[in-house]
Each structure stands twice: as C-alpha cells, then as structure tokens.
Design brief:
The chain has helices at residues 4-25, 36-41, 43-56, 96-108, 118-131, 142-146, 149-162, 203-212, 224-229; strands at residues 28-33, 62-67, 79-82, 88-91, 134-139, 169-174, 186-189, 193-195. By secondary structure, the protein is an alpha/beta fold. It has 2 domains: 4-120, 3-Layer(aba) Sandwich (Glutaredoxin); 132-229, Glutaredoxin. The strands form 2 sheets. A 4-stranded mixed sheet has the order 2-1-3-4. A 4-stranded mixed sheet has the order 6-5-7-8, sandwiched between helices. A hairpin with a 3-residue loop joins strand 7 and strand 8 (193-195). Helix 3 packs across helix 4. The protein is elongated. It binds FE2/S2 (inorganic) cluster. FE2/S2 (inorganic) cluster is lined by residues 139, 141-144, 176-180, 183, 185.
Length: 230
C-alpha cells in the first residue's frame, strides 16, 4: 500500500512525463536517413550541415535525429520533416547545399521546397520514362554504389548525349537487383538485357552496339547458367 505522499509523487512524475511528450509533439522533427544506403550516399555531411545551420540560426522547437533505411535507397540521402500539424515532407537526393536551403525555406520560411521532394522527383522521372523509347535501369543499391555505379551513370549520360540518344533513352536509378557481388548491374529495356560487372570503359560499346544498332554486348551479359556452375 502506498502512502499519500508516494501517490502524490507518482502523479507528479506522470504529469512530468506527459509534459515531456507534449513538448516533443510541439517540435518539428527532422529525420536524416542514416541506414547503410544513406551513409554510402553521403548522409553524414547532410546531418552535420542541418545541425550546424539550425544552431547558427538559433532555431527553437526543431529536433534533428537519425533514422534507418526507408526502402527507397535510390533516393538517398533523404531527409524527412514532420511539421507540428503532422504533415510529412520527404526531401530526396539531398546535398549539403540543398540542406541549407531546406533549413531556410522549410524550417524558417515555413514553405516546402517542392522541387526537392520525393513527389517532384518521381513525377519528373515518370515523364522521362513515358517519353523514352528505351530505358536503362542502373542499380544504385549499396553494393553497386561501392563498385562504382555512379561513374557508370555519368558515362551513360555522356555517351548517350554524344550518340544523340539522350532524348530516346532514359537512364533510371533503381534499387538492388539481388546480384550485389556482380555489380555494377544495369538492365536495358526493351528486352531486359542484364549487364553485370560493367566498367566505365564498357559504356561506349554498349551505347554504340546495343542502343544504337540493337546488338547486345554478349560478353557483358549476365549469364545465370554460368553463375550456377561456379
Ligand atoms: S546492390 Fe546492385 S544488385 Fe544489389
């Protein structure tokens, strides 16, 4: 049996906890994706810039914290902002410069920077996808990122432009295909030709032979049957 004094203390403690929860609900929450994919894509400097900028501007009522992978690794680094009214905004493909703009535009100016949001990026990607005749899906999962997929994307864009195919062929960043040890992986549609262990110096040949002349570069095509024999 608790004494009256103990019960009073318990009540005060409970009210105190409620106060803390209430205080947290009154803050804007900024979450930085710090899963392996986020870190590989450069989330650490984003987190530092956000913390520095929020401190520099002496913003109150903003809580910055880390979160794990949200399953759409191809859009990392990502920052999610939960405003006090419960609205969630997801900023994708963040850079330190964009992070500064988000602090000033969203957190201080209270206006969403639409062009950095997931909705804007996916809409523009869908427009490109619909207009293109061919599509190249390049894996940007953690494994392929560490084996150099970003350089592959740069080379693809360069070579497609040189060949005059940049309007007809869309290069799309995709998630993991499950063949991480054989990366970088890219798949060309129509046809679904799977290229594995692609090197930057192979891209010119793939663009000229496959995209321009319709002849897949067989020496680079992923052979599942060979894999089983290995
Ligand atoms: S990370 Fe590219 S296939 Fe898994």
């Amino acid at each position: 049996m608790k004494t009256l004094e103990e019960l009073k203390m318990l009540k005060e403690k409970a009210l105190g906890n409620m106060g803390i929860r209430h205080e947290k609900n009154e803050a804007v929450r900024v979450l930085v994706g710090m899963g392996t994919c986020g870190i590989a894509a450069g989330a650490r400097p984003i987190l530092s810039v956000l913390v520095e900028e929020v401190n520099k501007e002496k913003l109150e009522g903003v809580i910055i914290s880390q979160t794990g992978c949200t399953g759409i690794c191809q859009y990392e680094p990502m920052v999610e902002i939960y405003d006090m009214d419960g609205t969630k905004t997801t900023y994708v493909n963040m850079t330190p410069e964009k992070a500064v703009k988000v602090v000033h535009g969203h957190l201080i100016g209270k206006k969403t920077i639409d062009e950095y949001t997931l909705g804007a990026v996916t809409t523009s990607q869908w427009k490109t996808i619909h207009m293109a005749k061919s599509h190249i899906l390049v894996c940007t999962g953690t494994g392929c990122t560490s084996s150099g997929c970003e350089e592959i994307i740069v080379k693809l864009n360069e070579n497609l432009q040189k060949a005059g195919l940049d309007k007809e062929v869309a290069v799309i960043k995709a998630g993991c295909f499950g063949l991480c040890a054989r990366g970088p992986i890219m798949v060309v549609y129509p046809g679904g030709t799977f290229y594995a262990m692609v090197k930057p110096e192979d891209i010119g040949e793939i663009v000229q032979e496959h995209l321009l002349k319709g002849r897949p570069v067989t020496r680079l095509v992923y052979d599942e049957t060979q894999e089983k024999k290995m």
